[in-house]
Specification:
The chain is mainly α. The protein contains eleven helices and three strands, in the order αααααβββαααααα. It folds into two domains: 85 residues, no CATH class; 147 residues, no CATH class. Strand 2 and strand 3 form a beta hairpin.
Length: 234
């Protein structure tokens, strides 16, 4: 009887702790960290599952690509810790410079320096180094949006202040990524733009038509690509 009496009390206590955690100012931070850890774990398992046979045949080590993935994750974790130490004012000053750098790198991808892999031109080769400017563009877009909306923070109730310069200049980054036929990264950048608009309080009457137009564009891009239609058919 004692255990039966304490069980509801214990569950009530756990529920109260969860409610208190959700109401704390650090709740969004914990939510993001937990989401990242879950996604990272799933990603490593998927890489291992998808590449182990190929890695064993080509590298004689089934864990070769999974270990590389973990190494990049560790480097990204260190970079994230460094970013956390940078004051917000310093990050906001980087807003426009990183946006301009992202645009310049994405334009360079469309030049002979760009490398096409599996039909997508989204790699940039400079000497012996190859990297994806679109990955940098994701981070640059978030930092840039934080900078511009900090300046506009008292005027975000005005539709024009919400849309400009986010839609034209954020749309430029999206257009440059799509010009390289990288639909997957384009979808992520489009989602970043929509989520930022939602976070700053854009009304649903604006977001719903915008989302519908984006869905139509995605359908058009998929329909116009034989390889993407082939993936859907499979």
């Amino acid at each position: 009887m004692a255990s039966e009496a304490t069980s509801p009390a214990r569950s009530t206590g756990v529920w109260s702790q969860l409610k208190a955690l959700a109401a704390s100012p650090m709740a969004p931070f914990y939510f993001v960290v937990a989401s990242v850890l879950i996604l990272v774990s799933l990603g490593v398992m998927m890489v291992l599952s998808a590449s182990s046979v190929f890695a064993l045949a080509t590298q004689e080590d089934p864990y070769y690509f999974a270990i590389r993935q973990v190494a990049f994750l560790v480097a990204g974790f260190v970079f994230a810790l460094i970013l956390m130490r940078i004051p917000p004012d310093a990050l906001r000053k980087l807003g426009w410079p990183v946006w301009m750098l992202a645009v310049a790198l994405l334009i360079m991808v469309l030049t002979p320096l760009g490398v096409t892999i599996y039909g997508n031109t989204n790699w940039l080769a400079i000497g012996p180094f190859q990297f994806q400017p679109s990955e940098f563009a994701k981070l640059a877009l978030i930092v840039w949006c934080g900078a511009i909306f900090h300046v506009k923070r008292g005027r975000l109730h005005e539709p024009l202040q919400l849309a400009v310069p986010l839609l034209p200049l954020g749309g430029l980054i999206l257009a440059l990524v799509l010009a390289g036929r990288d639909l997957g990264t384009g979808l992520i950048i489009g989602l970043i733009i929509v989520l930022i608009m939602w976070f700053i309080g854009t009304p649903m009457r604006v977001l719903i038509p915008l989302g519908a137009a984006a869905a139509g564009l995605v359908a058009l891009l998929v329909y116009g690509s034989g390889s993407r239609m082939g993936r859907i058919a499979v």
